[in-house]
Amino acid sequence: MDYNRLHSYEAYQAAYAASVQDLEGFWGAIAENFTWRQKWDKVLEWNFEEPKVAWFIGGKLNITENCIDRHLATRGNKLAMIWEANDPKERYMRWTYRELSEKVNQFANVLKNNGAKKGDRIAIYMPMIPELMVSVLACARIGAIHSVVFAGFSAHSLADRINDAACSMVLTSDGMNRGAKQIPVKRVVDEALEMCTSVEKVIVVDRVGWAVNMQEGRDVYLHEELPKASKVCEAEIMDAEDPLFILYTSGSTGKPKGVVHTCGGYMVYADYSFRNVFQYNESDVHWCTADVGWVTGHSYIVYGPLLAGATTLMFEGVPTYPDPGRFWQVCDKFGVTHFYTAPTAIRSLMQAGEDHVLSYSLDSLKVLGSVGEPINEEAWHWYHTHVGKNRCPLVDTWWQTETGGIMISTLAGITPMKPAHATLPLPGVQPVLLDGEGNEIEGNDVEGYLCIKAPWPSILRTTYGDHERCRINYFAAYKGYYFTGDGARRDEHGFYRIIGRVDDVINVSGHRFGTAEIENAINQNENVIESAVVGYPHDIKGQGIYAYIICKEMPENPIQVRAEIVETVVAEIGKIAKPDVIQFVSGLPKTRSGKIMRRILRKIAEGDVSNLGDTSTLLDPLIVDEIKDGAIALMA
Ligand code: 7RM
Predict the structure, then answer these.
(1) Residue ranges covered by each domain of the chain
(2) Reported confidence tier of residue 459, pLDDT bands at 50, 70, 90
(3) What pLDDT was estimated at residue 254?
(4) HSE-up of 386 (CA within 13 Å, CB side)?
(5) Which tens digits make up the pLDDT trace of 291-341?
(6) Which amino acid residue places its CA nearest to atom 3 of ligand 1?
């Protein structure tokens, strides 16, 4: 039986059973489908106590030979990448696999000429330009460990990440385009590097044509280095367990952790999950709207699609520029077949009205995807109806930076879908629900802490420079399990629905509520568009409930609307879940991947507005001031 590509529900079920029966046999067979310089001696060694996980032990490979070189014979003239600029009037770019190969090899030689070597850490701080994809692959080609830092992060955040991994090089650009604005990039790097000592070289891409500061001996322009570099660069031969990249992610503590992924396992899982979840076919055009600065961009803009020999689309701009029809215009322009985005984008486009989406045909679309947060039913239906015209399967994909690839998801058109449910685990993935004591909850129609029972090839190996932190964060809460930090429900069919982070639980008078649960109740009120709930210290109840609410219109009579919302919550959950404070806001502090920064909302709810930490990664940092002022007025 070939479980490499699942074409039916029956094949899915057979593969799932086989993977549980013989995990090593299952993944060993899938790993046969790659170019290895040397085959592995052993598929897997693991224990979740230290933790120690190693896949394809003794195997040798280079992931770029699998993303590029092995396709050249059959797909040399096929498009590897389509790039659409922020400005719809600017020329788009298209590269074949052969062209991508030349670009990556040449950039790899630029890195080498500037002193980079295997094992070095290289920070990449770049906007969504083609050179970003080339940079990532060029690092992988020479065996340098890339650490992509989202170009919206502040100089402080960038410096912290550079220092944590002692990066020797930074790859960046002069500036960037974002909607109607142009934003400095190199200037942020300069500011960050005043706080760093490890960086010896900075390579700058000329994107906007600014005359930026270039420090003699340290900073060089890419366009001046390229002519000196050959278009042939032998791939560095890597051990399957050598690190491929570091990607920083926030946890419940303040300091981001550097999640480490390795060459062999990550490669196998990125390809396998991409092909099966999206049911990719040879002539498809895949568009993932994430930024390469997040794990979604790593796995489903760069590595997954290229490993599969697909055409991947990269977009420099934002969903609402020049108008909220931009996503749909780009879909029609390039005949996009697979469209993968975040619920937050869907909800904001939903708010902008149907006219924008109805102006485009969207005939080419075959599969829709969602990632990053729970997708509410209303957004799910809007997306399915108006974008997918009720004919495209919609995959709600649950996964994490730490998992490297999609873990629980419908396989498009193959396994069942259900609104707001990620549904079933991919074969090779063994989720369980645990109760507070760490016992597995059997059966269906149950809820618990979402953990994974056995390793999969792209499980994180460590957090950079601090293995103990990795153990405590993910492997200590429940002995013998990987703990996701999420709570989930398994419905009567055995389909998973992710409820949300369990670190966002509020305990009111000994009764526990998910912030998501209360938000869902509030959102049932007809005035409400979106809400965010946090706990705050309460003298009598232990924790009180503070709700930040966006209404369709700012209420003219807030007392009345407040009372109506409280009534809705009482009706949905019960008196015990009544919000104690309701503040009407025009927006919420969200990261660019759509996650609400609850830390900020909690602090404001606690009345501590003095030190809200770094807000530079927010989509709209100004919203924090509005919320702060509103909260002060409310308490007065
Ligand atoms: C890919 C990504 C991970 C956290 C995760 C969840 C939440 C992600 C979904 C989701 C409900 C989904 N990586 N999350 N996908 N919740 N349904 N389909 O987002 O490391 O940045 O975040 O995101 O809480 O633990 S991430």
Answers:
(1) 9-318+397-488, 509-635
(2) very high
(3) 39
(4) 23
(5) 999 999 999 999 999 999 999 999 999 999 999 999 999 999 999 999 999
(6) 400
How far is the centre of ligand 1, averaged over its atoms, from the C-alpha of 484 (Å)?
10
Mean predicted lDDT score pLDDT of the chain: 94
DSSP string, 167-235: -SEEEEESEEEETTEEEESHHHHHHHHTT-SS--EEEEE-SS-------TTTEEEHHHHGGGS-S--PP
- pLDDT above 80 for 370: yes
Name the burial class of residue 228, with classes exposed (0-12), middle (13-18) and buried (19+) by CB atoms within 10 angstroms of its CB.
Answer: exposed
Query: Separation of 69 CA from ligand 1 center, angstroms?
Result: 32
Nearest residue CA, atom 1 of ligand 1?
400
- CATH homologous superfamily of 9-318+397-488: ANL, N-terminal domain (3.40.50.12780)
> What residues does 94 pair with on adjacent strands?
82
Q: Ligand 1 test: best mutation among 486, 499, 502, 590, most atoms within 8 Å of CB?
A: 486
Residue 535 has pLDDT above 80, yes or no: yes
Q: Which CATH class is domain 509-635?
A: alpha beta
Report the Cα 350 to chain-centroid distance in Å: 22
Say if residues 152 and 338 touch (Cβ distance below 8 Å): no
Of 1, 4, 12, nearest in space to 414 by CA: 12
Determine the distance separating the centroid of ligand 1 and the alpha carbon of 298, expressed in angstroms: 15
8 A C-beta contact, residue 405 and residue 458: yes
Show Cβ contacts of residue 87 under 8 Å, excluding neighbours closer than 6 positions.
177, 317
571 in Cβ contact with 564 (< 8 Å) = no
Give the confidence band of 375 by pLDDT, cuts at 50, 70, 90.
Answer: confident
Instruction: Pick from 259, 398, 489 the residue to mutate for probing ligand 1's pocket: most ligand atoms within 8 Å of its CB.
Output: 398
- Which atom of ligand 1 is found nearest the CA of 409? 18
Q: Ligand 1 — pocket residues by CB below 6 A?
A: 249, 295-296, 371-374, 396-401, 422, 484-486, 498, 501, 593
**How far is residue 224's CA from residue 129's CA, in Å, rounded to a whole number?**
18
The residue whose CA has the least distance to atom 13 of ligand 1 is 400
Q: The tokens of 527 are what?
A: 């005035």
Condensed to tens digits (0 to 9), the pLDDT of residues 486-522 reads 899 999 999 999 987 776 767 676 565 678 778 988 9
Q: Which helix H or strand E contains 603, and what residues bound it? A: helix 598-605
Q: Of all protein residues, whose CA lies closest to atom 5 belonging to ligand 1?
A: 400
Please name the residue that has the structure tokens 């996503």.
Answer: 327
Type of residue found at 99? E
Share of the chain above pLDDT 70, in %: 97
